[in-house]
Amino acid sequence: MVRRISIIAFVVGVLFMLTLFYMSTLENSGLAMKKIVPFIYLDIIDTDRAGSRIEELLRMLPQINTHGVDCTRIFARDDEEIKKAQNVTTVRTIPDRNFLTLARNCTSYRRRGYMTKPVSDEEERYPIAYILQIYKDLVQIERLLMAIYRPQNWYCINVDLSTGEDVHLGMIAIASCFDNIVINSVDVAWAKMSQVEADLVSIRVINLYS
Ligand SMILES: *[C@@H]1O[C@H](CO)[C@@H](O)[C@H](O)[C@H]1NC(C)=O
Ligand SMILES: *[C@@H]1O[C@H](CO)[C@@H](O)[C@H](O)[C@H]1NC(C)=O
């Protein structure tokens, strides 16, 4: 009896190890992962309905120059197109001090990729107030802002008092191009009470302006 149980335990153990080994080979093999990932997605979302909705949303998003890469095909998980995109992907960095000049002409600055219309009636009827606390790297902050910016929302950005002049001036220049972006400048220490204070000041500022 004891012997039979230990044999069963051994077989189960071996099967478990084999499963782990199989899973680890899947993780290492890009090909197998590609086969699995669409399967998971197909399971979770109703692709027929989501497909047309995604295309509709894509048409409304500001278009960014993607060097001849077809984003719709990427969303359709076309391996060739994904390879092409990976080939041309570069990380663009812009020095903080350049934003003062970039945002000097608001007409051209707003065309860098900010949404100028609400995405849907539903969103328009439900404006959101965002509070951001920033410290460095305007190009990254700009990318975030471009993704969440909608004309019906409010944005209060706390530029840390102790950050450099370039970030301060650049952020002021960007904010001055939009009626719904306001900035304040509380000295924030990470994970300290001042972080909450900065948010409270932002809430007050948004209350004043909106
Ligand atoms: C990747 O870029 C290189 C150099 O520009 C080019 O020769 C090659 O054909 C590209 N590969 C793909 C898949 O687009
Ligand atoms: C600002 O940019 C727009 C669009 O590029 C251009 O038409 C306009 O002349 C510029 N204004 C100034 C003052 O340079």
Please count the helical segments. 11
**How big is the Rg?**
25 Å
Overall average pLDDT: 77
Which fold name is given in CATH as the topology of the largest domain? Rossmann fold
Strands of the biggest beta sheet: in what spatial order? 1-2-3
What is the CATH C-level name of the largest domain? Answer: Alpha Beta
**Overall 3D geometry?**
globular
Q: Roughly how much helix do the residues carry, as a percent range?
A: 55-70%
Euclidean distance between termini CA atoms: 77 Å
**What CATH architecture of the largest domain do you see?**
3-Layer(aba) Sandwich
User: Quick one: biggest sheet?
Assistant: 3 strands, parallel
Name every ligand kind in the structure. 2-acetamido-2-deoxy-beta-D-glucopyranose
Unreliable spans: 18-47
**Overall tally of domains:** 2
Say how many strands there are: 3
Structure description:
The radius of gyration is 25 Å and the shape is globular. It is mostly helical and 210 residues long. It contains 11 helices and 3 strands; from the N terminus they run ααααααααβαβαβα. A 3-stranded parallel sheet has the order 1-2-3, with helices on both faces. It has 2 domains: 2-45; 96-209, Rossmann fold (3-Layer(aba) Sandwich). It has helices at residues 2-28, 30-44, 47-60, 71-75, 79-88, 98-102, 106-110, 121-124, 138-148, 165-175, 193-209, and strands at residues 129-134, 154-159, 181-184. Bound molecules: 2-acetamido-2-deoxy-beta-D-glucopyranose (2 copies). One 2-acetamido-2-deoxy-beta-D-glucopyranose (NAG) is lined by residues 105, 107-108.
